[in-house]
Amino acid sequence: MEDRKTQFTQAIWQITDKLHEAQSLDNALAASLEIIIDILNSEAGSIWLLDKGSDRLYPVFNQGPVDISGITIENGQGIAGSVVQSGKSIISSVDAEDSRFTSSVDEESGFLTKTLICVPLKDSHETIGCIEILNRKDGGVYDDEDLMLCEAVASLAAVAIEEKGLFFEPSAQQEVIISLRGVTKDYPSGDGVAHVLRGINLDVYKNEFLVVLGESGCGKSTLVNIIGGMDFLTDGQLLINGKDFSRPTDKDLTQFRRDYLGFVFQSYNLMPNLTALENVQFIADIAQNPMSAEEAIAKVGLSDRAGNYPSALSGGQQQRVAIARAVVKRPQIIFADEPTAALDYETSIEVLSVFEEIKKEVGTTIMMITHNPEIAKMADRVIKMRDGRVSSIKVNLHPLSAGELSW
């Protein structure tokens, strides 16, 4: 028992330090949630904030196996809504006769809640949200000491939010363009099987900047390759604009890659015997409704280098040509796999600024894989992967511009 009390005390001090010293309150709150989930040996957790205008709750930080970032619930609905409306904590196991357990959120996320703690976030005037922790990994139930820890953390978080300021302005209802449910990917490995993706649940939204973080081998590139039709899932479902692409035909794949997707890779992949403009024009010629190659080159700021061959361009300029080549077809989504890994800091910022402008001007969704956590600060959402699973999802309440990043 003493060891447990010591762990809880250490957790409180650790969270206090993070909230007090945080340069980014968003990151400190997300880190605090992670600490609580770890110390309580739980499967998932989230921090919900209340939007007064719509009287709805939005999950702004989420850790666990499913993507709930697109879900909102009415104030007063379900457990989280009940806690926010009443301002009182709840500790409970799921009971079918408990009217607070509405099925809508669980059905939408695909997550089975067995036991939970939910505590209100209160500033000096009102309840502004809640912290929800779900399912002990050992199958046990939460107790009063667990509840006291969550309430202590909620008090610390609420004070930090009020003192440092966390202005919550939810975006308009987002349109899902890509949806994955229970996606797995296995590869033969020696005498056995390598499980690369272990049940991915994720939605990708129209006109968002989505960053995927994770260590080498966690499944980031495999995930993007499956969405992009360069690899195929083992099990689960992949929907593109509502159409099932779990088992696409060759014809569907060809049209999908040609008209819907743009790719930007670390290695640029430009054709060396074509000029910058010709590299872009080559893709424009096979696209269904392209912009002009000249317009695409102008969007990446290389009109004055359009006649140069790749060998006469710097690494950053070659990457910008690669972005122009991706955007010329007016794709709904651009996949960027470590696009700045081979570039220095200043050139990286130039390239990231181009992505930023493309999202803003063209309305294209950007899904970027990176090892650099600093780049995640400019994303609308940050997906962290670990061991073939989505380990956490964070909504950046105030994304930075590329020019504000430093490393």
Write a brief caption for the model.
The chain has 407 residues and is an alpha+beta fold. It contains eleven helices and 16 strands.
Summary keywords:
alpha+beta, 407 residues, four-stranded antiparallel sheet, twelve-stranded mixed sheet, Beta-Lactamase, 2 domains
Describe it for me?
By secondary structure, the protein is of the alpha+beta class. The protein has 2 domains: 2-164, Beta-Lactamase, CATH 3.30.450; 176-260 and 331-404, Rossmann fold (3-Layer(aba) Sandwich), CATH 3.40.50. The protein has 11 helices and 16 strands. The protein has helices spanning 2-21, 25-39, 78-86, 103-109, 144-164, 220-227, 250-259, 276-284, 293-299, 315-327, 345-362, and strands spanning 42-51, 56-63, 73-74, 90-93, 115-122, 127-136, 176-189, 192-205, 209-213, 235-240, 243-244, 261-265, 333-337, 365-370, 381-386, 389-395. The strands form 2 sheets. Strands 1, 2, 3, 4, 5, 6, 9, 12, 13, 14, 15 and 16 form a 12-stranded mixed sheet that branches. It has a 4-stranded antiparallel sheet with strand order 8-7-10-11, with helices on one face. A hairpin with a 4-residue loop joins β5 (115-122) and β6. α8 crosses α9 (293-299). The two termini are 43 Å apart.
